[in-house]
Amino acid sequence: MRRVKFKAVRVVGERRVSAYARGAYCLNYLKDSVVRAREETLGIAVFGRRSDAEKFCYRTVTKFNIIRVLPVGRGRTVEMVSQSTYMLDIFYSDIVKHHRIPRDPNLILMKPPRGTIFYPAVEVIE
């Protein structure tokens, strides 16, 4: 049985979109839909516990909403993510495709927020 996970999203007009991802990496989270991660990315970042999602949202300047999702596929954790939303092409090219540390000095890596799990897809339930 799949357990409910928690996703932080930005509300832009009527849309609920990825908290930090921009451009082609930004996904829309419509209620009752299955949202799939873009190929060759880490997946869709969610939190295993609501309290971790709330802590993440509390620490940011941007206002985020927390929605409930059901994970689809096998989850995984990672050691580093890109802190720069505008450098995701470089991050994914080097880390995910080539399994190497990016050499671009503008790319800042960080540990993902506590409780972050990446899934290939999620089913949006609220």
Task: Describe the secondary-structure layout.
Layout (H helix, E strand, L loop, with lengths): L4 E8 L2 E4 L15 E3 L7 E4 L2 H9 L6 E8 L8 E2 L5 H10 L11 E2 L5 E4 L1 E4 L2
Antiparallel strand pairs: 1-2, 1-5, 3-9, 4-8, 5-9, 6-7
Please give a handful of descriptors for the protein shown.
2 helices; two-stranded antiparallel ribbon; 126 residues; alpha+beta; five-stranded antiparallel sheet
Shape field: globular
Structural class: alpha+beta
Rounded mean pLDDT score: 86
The total domain count is 1
Beta-strand fraction estimate? 25-35%
Q: Quote the distance from N terminus to C terminus.
A: 18 Å
Explain what you see.
- The protein has one domain.
- It has two helices and nine strands; from the N terminus they run E-E-E-E-H-E-E-H-E-E-E.
- It has helices at 50-58, 88-97, and strands at residues 5-12, 15-18, 34-36, 44-47, 65-72, 81-82, 109-110, 116-119, 121-124.
- The strands form three sheets. A five-stranded antiparallel β-sheet has the order 2-1-5-9-3, with helices on one face. The protein has a two-stranded antiparallel sheet with strand order 4-8. It has a two-stranded antiparallel sheet with strand order 6-7.
- Strand 1 and strand 2 form a beta hairpin.
- The model has no long low-confidence stretch (mean pLDDT 86).
